[in-house]
Amino acid sequence: MSGNLAINMAPAKPFVTSTLYTIGEAADILGVSIPTIRMYEREGLIIPHRKHSKHRRFSQNDVERIRCIRTMINHDKVSIAGIRRLLSLIPCWKILNCSPDERESCAAFHQHDKPCWMVSGKSWECRSADCRECSVYTEVASCQAIKQAIVMHTLGSEVATTE
Ligand code: SF4
């Protein structure tokens, strides 16, 4: 990736709160069952933190991501496969400032059926990165952030800010 990679691949901005929730706490906050959250993880929509004890932990951004998933399912009637496709529209190559060559050789740029963190055959930099710590995953979490990322990086910041 180009010169900005080191900046972009660094751990994301601090979360609004650094609190990490257990899966039970996250389920309570969201009003969903624990098996539902586990299912989202199996389906690749979320990547929870894993403590040394192997127990899942969820950040505030994870909670916002699940909230967005719930809205898409319950309000917009989007299927899990549909959500994967929507997440695949997040232009990670623009957020990470990949060069044209890196972009062309990366499967995440060419696939449109799953988010980049689920894709195999990514460019070397992404293959060796921890998606859980990547700004594409950590910062583009809420429905609003997903929308902004797609609009800003696709059409330009002017459009996004005038919405
Ligand atoms: S594949 Fe992983 S490291 Fe690469 S842009 Fe997506 S979340 Fe970031």
Note the main attributes of this structure:
163 residues, mainly alpha, Multidrug-efflux Transporter Regulator, Chain: A, Domain 2, two-stranded antiparallel ribbon, 2 strands, globular, disordered N terminus, binds iron/sulfur cluster
General description of the model:
By secondary structure, this protein is mostly helical. The chain has one domain: Multidrug-efflux Transporter Regulator, Chain: A, Domain 2. The protein has a two-stranded antiparallel ribbon with strand order 1-2. The longest helix is centred in the middle third of the chain and has 16 residues. It is globular and about 45 Å long. The two termini are 31 Å apart. The N terminus and C terminus are likely disordered. Bound molecules: iron/sulfur cluster (SF4). Iron/sulfur cluster binds next to helix 10.
Bound small molecules, by name, code or SMILES, are:
iron/sulfur cluster
CATH topology: Multidrug-efflux Transporter Regulator, Chain: A, Domain 2
Distance between the termini: 31 Å
Q: Count the domains.
A: 1
Enumerate the strands of the largest sheet in spatial order, edge to edge or round the barrel: 1-2
* Residue-averaged pLDDT: 84
> What is the general shape?
globular
- CATH C-level class is Mainly Alpha
Radius of gyration: 16 Å
* Category from helices, strands and their pairing: mainly alpha
Strand residues, percent: under 5%
Which series of helices and strands comes N to C? Answer: HHHEEHHHHHHHHH
CATH architecture: Orthogonal Bundle
Biggest sheet architecture? 2 strands, antiparallel
